[in-house]
Amino acid sequence: MKPWITVGEALSPDGTRLELVEHDGEYIIRADDLPLMSTRMHFSEIELARLVCNKLRSGAKVMIGGLGLGYTLRAALDLLPKDGTAVQVELVPEVVEWNKGPLAPFAGNPLDDKRSELVQGDVAKAIRGGRNEYDSIMLDVDNGPSPLVNERNAWLYTDHGLQAIRGALKNGGRVAIWSADDEPRFISRMKRNGFRAEKHHIQAHKGKGGIRHVIFTGRKT
């Protein structure tokens, strides 16, 4: 059996060790040895974009928080009008480099698309800086409402964070939040902060059983 090979390592701002590993053509990003995402199982990352980027208007502007393996950005670009903009926010510079290097072909080199605008920094800061600016916001910055990699991400899922997301969206704009597991109370929190909210159970691997992730979506009311 071929061994797992470490391709790259990084340290998140809170000290979590991130590692890009490869085995027989498959790549995985790990956080403190726990798998976060894989090139073999990425259907829910694609669905994160599909759920809130369909029927975008001309000149639409969307934001993706968390680059991961690039699949959400790719899916958003596939749905974005030719004159649209996809703002990709990523905190860890090494993750950007991995996506420009060995990971680039898997999602079709989305960072090279002229509609992609890369922001290297904290997505919470980017959200707070937006005012009625985005048609859609997609968040895959951690394990979901129960943060795993960076405790600072917990703010995004609070009342204050959801209000900031709502403020950054245009009227009728939509948000999608990826979660590894269900968070039963999160839908109620979204509703009380001005979203028409839904919950979607999505397979990690299209057309197969096994792991299912949760995507919370909300439309600004």
The end-to-end span amounts to 53 Å
Give me the CATH superfamily. Answer: Vaccinia Virus protein VP39
Question: Which segments are poorly predicted (pLDDT under 50) over 5 or more consecutive residues?
Answer: none
Strand line-up of the largest beta sheet: 7-6-5-8-9-11-10
Task: Please count the beta strands (DSSP E, at least 2 residues each).
Answer: 11
Mean pLDDT level: 92
Reported for the largest beta sheet, the result is: 7 strands, mixed
Counting structural domains, the number is: 1
Give the radius of gyration.
16 Å
Strand content: 25-35%
Shape estimate: globular
* H/E element sequence: EEEEHEHEHEHEHEHEE
CATH class: Alpha Beta
Question: Helix amount, in percent?
Answer: 10-25%
- Looking at the structure, the CATH topology is Rossmann fold
Structural class: alpha/beta
Architecture (CATH level 2) name: 3-Layer(aba) Sandwich
The number of distinct helices, counting runs of at least 4 residues, comes to 6
Short description:
By secondary structure, the protein is an alpha/beta fold. The protein is built from six helices and eleven strands.
Question: Can you give a write-up of this model?
Answer:
It is a single chain. This protein is α/β, with parallel strands linked by helices. It has one domain: Rossmann fold, CATH 3.40.50. It has six helices and eleven strands. The chain has helices spanning 43-53, 71-79, 93-100, 123-128, 159-168, 186-192, and strands at 5-11, 17-23, 26-31, 34-38, 61-65, 85-90, 116-120, 134-139, 169-179, 195-203, 212-220. Helix 1 (43-53) runs parallel beside helix 2 (71-79).
